[in-house]
Amino acid sequence: MRANTLFDFLNRCSLDYAARECLAYGETRLTFGYFARVVDRLALALAGLGLKSGNRMALMLPNLPQFPIAYYALLKLGVWVVPINVLFKENDVRHVLADSGVDGFIAWEGFSHHLLPPAAELKHCRLQIFLGEKIPPGAINLTHIIAASMQRFERLGIENKINADPDDPALILYTAGATGAPKGAVFSHRSLAAAISACWRNFAVSVDDRFLAVSPLFHGFGQMMAMNLPLAAGARTVLLSRFDPQAIVETIAREKITHFVGVPSMFSALLRLAPAPERLSTLKCCLVSGAMLPAQIQQAFEALYHVPIYEGYGLAECCPLVTTFSAWVPRVEENACSVGLPITGIEVAIWDAKRRHAPEEKIGEIFVRGPWTMKGYLDAGQISQNAFESGWLDTGDLGMMDRQGFLYLVDRRADVILKAGFPVYPSEVEAVLAQHPKIEECAVIGVPDRLHGEEVKAYVVVRPKQFATKEEIVEFCKASLAMYKCPRHVEFCESLPHSVTGKVLKRLLREKKPAPIVVAAETQPAAEADASQVEATAVEAATTTVVDNTQTERTVDEVQSS
Q1: Parallel, antiparallel, or unpaired: how do β-strands 382-384 and 376-379 relate?
Q2: What domains lie within the chain, and their CATH numbers?
Q3: What's this model's pTM, rounded to 2 decimal places?
Q4: How far apart are the two ends of the chain, measured CA to CA in Å?
Q5: Which of 249, 265, 284, 458 sits CB 3.0–4.6 Å from 275 for a disulfide?
C-alpha cells in the first residue's frame, strides 16, 4: 500500500486486524486495536504536558512494550524521536541530549543516574518522564499519565490525527561514531514509510508472520525491521529485553517465530549453544545486518537448521537497509562474498576519486540515493546537507559492484592504511588473520610511522588455552599477503572494543583506550555471549523490575479499566 507516514499502516491494521496480536512481552499481549488506542491516549497525555509538533524527545527504554507505545505517541504529535542506546553512560548521554536539543526524555528509572546530571545542565531538557516505581523526585510517571489521560480522552480525542507533514522530521538516529563523535541522522515521516514499504515487498511479510525483537529497538535496524515492519504488515512482534541464547531458542519454539532479526555475533552464540533443529523449525529466515557475518558461521547455521540467513548492508544514514539477499535474491557461490542487490527503490553507485562512475569490479566510494536516505545530519540544531553530493549520499564506505549489480564491501574509507603511498585495506588483512587456527578475533588499523607514513598494526585475541607469538602471526600472513600488507606491529589483548552489533570500534584502538570491555555505540545488550554480560546488571534489573512489579501489565490494565 502507498503510505506517507507510519500511521497510514497502523490505522489500517487497527481497523482490519483489530483483534490480532501485534506485540507480545512475556504474558503481556496487545492487539492492534488496543495498541492504537493506548498510543492515542499517551499522545493526548503528552500534548497535555505541552509537547507539540517540532519538539524533540529522547527515548531511553529497553525492548519493552512501552518503547513502541511512546515512539508512536511522540510521532503522532509531530515530535522528533531521539532513541538513546541503553548502554550509554553519562558522557554519551550528555552528547546526544545536547546535540539533539531535546525538550525532555522518556526513560526507565534505572537509567536516571546517567540522564539526570546532563539534563540538569541543559535548560531546554525540561520534561522528564520515567517508567518504573522509583521515580526520581520531580519527574513524571509514564504509567500514571497514560491512565489519567483516559478520563479526558473522549472529550478531547486524538484518533486518526497526526500533527505532522510527511516531510517533517520524525526521527534522529545517532551513528556509531566510528571515526568521531556520533552524528544525528534526521529522517522524515515519509522516508520511514518508504523504507518500510520497500522492506515489506522485499521480504514478502504476511499477517501470519512473527518477528523476534531481540535486536535493540533504539538501533535503526532493530527498530525498523523488528518493530515498524511487522506493525505495518499486520504481523506480530515478540519482544525480548536482552540477548540470551537460551531465551531466544525457547521464545522461537514457544511463540513459533518466523523471522529472527539479529546481528552477526548472535549466530555464533546460538551455534555454541547448539539447540536441536526442531526447536528452530518455525523460522522462515533470519535477517542480519550491522557487521559482516563470517562465511563459516553462516554456512554452519544454514546447514544445521535449514534456515536462510539474509544478510544486508545498511547504515544509520539510510535506515534500515541499502542492499540485501532475500528469497528472490539467493546467495550462491558466485556472489557469496557480496552483501546482496540494492532493494527496489534505492540506487547505489561506485564513484572514483574524481566523482565519476567507477568501472565494474573496480574499488571506489559507495554513494546512495533513494527515498529513505536521511534528510541530513543535525548540525547546531539545523539539518545539514554536507553529506550529499548532487543528491547522492556519501556513505564513507569503499566497495565495488559486479556485472549483475551485487555490491561488495571493501572497507571504511577512513580505515584505509596508506603505507608508502600504497593502500592497504584492513579488511583484507583481517580476513587472512581470521583463518589462523589460534585467533579468536582480530582488528587491523594504521599507526604513524616515520619511514612509511603509516604502518599496519594488528590487534589479536587468541582463542582460549592457545598461545601465539608475533613472529608466528606475521609468517602466517606472508603466505597470503604481499609483504607491505603484513602487520609490522602485533598487539595481543583479551578482547576488542565493540559496538553491540559486533563492529570493532577502531576509533578506540586509535585513541589507545583500554579494550577489555565491550563498548556500546550502536545497539543493545548484547551481541556476543560474553558481550551480553556488559551492563547485564543494569539491563537485567530493568527487566526484572518491570516484570516483577507487573509494570507492563499494570500500564495495560489501568488504561483498560479507566
Answers
A1: antiparallel
A2: 6-401 (3.40.50.12780), 413-524 (3.30.300.30)
A3: 0.85
A4: 35
A5: 249
